[in-house]
């Protein structure tokens, strides 16, 4: 798998959200992608950059193929997360759990 450069990958992620996610999930996903790419914009360690791009590219493939529905997180990946990353994951989980389907805009 050839890695996409950051900007084309960023665009691909937003496009995948637009095409494959319901509006509320798209909003949450877009905000998260934008924040993560902003936070990692100045990565200078090539290993971290490759890891970052690889994981986001795998995520894009899953969203595009609807393979993400019902998928559980890999335990090995969870064990490698820092305390800060675990906190972010927890906040994301809470945001998803607090999602009220009645708040979705009508089409």
3D structure, described in words:
- There is one protein chain.
- The chain has 5 helices and no strands.
- The protein is mostly helical and 107 residues long.
- It has a domain of 65 residues.
- α1 packs antiparallel against α2 and α1 packs parallel to α3.
- The chain is globular, with a radius of gyration of 15 Å.
- It starts with 5 loop residues before the first helix and ends in a 10-residue tail after the last helix.
- The mean pLDDT is 85.
- Pfam families: Complex1_LYR_2 (PF13233).
Shape: globular
Q: Oligomeric state of the chains? A: single chain
Secondary-structure content class = mainly alpha
The proportion of residues forming helix, as a percent range, comes to 55-70%
What share of the residues does DSSP label as strand, in percent? Answer: under 5%
- Count helical runs: 5
Question: In angstroms, what is the radius of gyration?
Answer: 15 Å
Whole-number average pLDDT? 85
**Distance from first to last alpha carbon:** 38 Å
The ordered H/E elements are: HHHHH
Kindly state the number of beta strands. 0
Largest sheet: none
Low-pLDDT segments, ≥5 res: none
């Amino acid at each position: 798998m050839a890695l996409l450069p950051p900007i084309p990958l960023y665009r691909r992620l937003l496009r995948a959200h637009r095409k494959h996610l319901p509006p509320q999930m798209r909003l949450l996903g877009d905000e998260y992608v934008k924040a993560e790419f902003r936070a990692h914009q100045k990565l200078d360690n090539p290993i971290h950059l490759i890891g970052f791009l690889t994981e986001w590219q795998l995520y894009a493939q899953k969203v595009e193929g609807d393979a993400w529905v019902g998928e559980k997180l890999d335990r090995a990946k969870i064990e490698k997360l820092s305390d800060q990353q675990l906190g972010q994951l927890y906040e994301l989980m809470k945001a998803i759990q607090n999602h009220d389907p009645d708040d979705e805009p009508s089409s």
